[in-house]
Amino acid sequence: MENSNAFKHRIGGAVVQQLATATRRAWRSFDEASFRTRALDGLEALELKARVKWVAQVWAEHLPPDYAEALPLVLATMGPPLETGAQVSEGLFFHWIHAQFVESYGLLHVLPSLQAMRELTQRSTAEFCVRPFLVQHPDETLAFLTNARSHASPHVRRWVSEGTRPRLPWGLRLAAFVKDPGPVLALIAPLRFDDEEYVRTSVANNLNDIAKDHPELVVETVKAWLRETSNPHAPWIAKRALRTLIKQGHAGALEALGFSAGTRTKLVAFTLDRESLSVGDDLVMEVTLQAGPAEVVNLDYAIGFQLSGGKRGEKVFKLKVLNLDEGQTVVLRKKHSFRPITTRKYYGGEHSVALIANGQTLGRATFTLQVPSSRRGFVGGGR
Asked: What is the pLDDT of residue 85?
């Protein structure tokens, strides 16, 4: 069944017309009608990224063939810069075509392309299109990003960090930085002092990426930052940067955030409100804990999902951080929704939920998830 809310539909007739009008305004020789007809030809059959690439390709075919001549026209079609704190969602899909143009046709023109990205990221994002430049022209691109760290716009400063994340979701994997994240760490380290949380969030996310391949390096980096009395942002960055390692029960990450590896708190009871539920339902779990000695406990829970082909997967979710006194008893209730979402396929069968305290599994319960009988894997359409 076609999902009418899918992001791919944002690259459609309205965006094509917006781009055609803006280009005609910037360049009177632009054949608006030809571009629009060609761009819409077969567009409906394509998925999101293919749509972006197709429209950018058709756009390039209708612009001057010389990139140095076409790029100023491309930049002239962009809207005004975002204000500090403004969200990029409004113009994201329109400007994605601009980013694709630079990515597809600008690799032989490094400096003007990077300058264009600096402008683009102040209106939307350039975190994806900079990545091929980091692969093919790492020295020039890193030097440009180093200078961009001091730019007045927080959108540019965030781009420095977000664009260099080794494992950026949806982005080209930066294999060299997955292997050796040293250049990335050196690049983003000064941004830990940035005044904008928007920028610091990206720094923490970059560290979280790096931690997937170099956990000890990230733990030591975070510990060093936490020792800096001059940085009030360090604890917040550390918590976000180490979130994946905390969910994995990494002893060094737990220690860095003030938790012990494992816990002496006891699980008294762990119950679910039902044994079977359907997609769209909520599952309510109730937990009773009793502390031994006083301690701080990081509580997570992990849902064990059925996957295609009979395989199983697991996703860890945050529950609560408890500061327990000696002998204290605590009762917690948590509702987990199985409503449809675009980013997950649900498969019927036995699922599980595990309670994790400071990386230690205290208990596990099972339940059955029912999916519509018309299809094996159910993909949601909401968020």
From this structure: 59
Are 98 and 120 in contact by the 8 Å Cβ rule? The answer is yes
Residue 203 corresponds to which tokens in the numbers above?
């720094």
Nearest to 336 by CA among 300, 311, 363, 372: 300
Which residues, 6 or more positions from 173, have their beta carbon under 8 angstroms from its beta carbon?
166, 167
Q: What pLDDT does residue 375 have? A: 46
What pLDDT, on the 0 to 100 scale, is given for residue 133?
98
Q: How far apart are CA 107 and CA 103, in angstroms?
A: 7
Q: Which helix (H) or strand (E) holds 132?
A: helix 131-136
Average pLDDT for runs of 10 along the chain of length 383? 70 94 96 97 93 97 97 94 66 91 98 98 94 98 98 96 96 97 98 96 97 98 95 95 93 94 94 95 97 95 91 93 96 94 84 95 95 55 29
pLDDT at 378: 44
Burial letters 21-45, b for 16+ CB under 10 A, else e: ebbbeebeebebeebbebbbeebee
Place of tokens 């502390």: 291
> How far, in Å, CA of 37 to CA of 16, rounded?
9
Torsion angle of the four alpha carbons 119, 122, 123, 129, in this order, in degrees rounded to the nearest 10: 60
Q: What was the pLDDT predicted at 275? A: 95
**pTM attached to this predicted model:** 0.86
- Alpha carbons 238 and 137: distance in angstroms, whole number: 31
376 vs 383: CA distance, rounded Å = 21
* Closest listed residue to residue 297, CA positions, set 346, 250, 248, 257: 257
What single string gives the DSSP state of each residue in 191-243? GGG-S-HHHHHHHHHHHHHHHTT-HHHHHHHHHHHHT-TT-TTHHHHHHHHTH
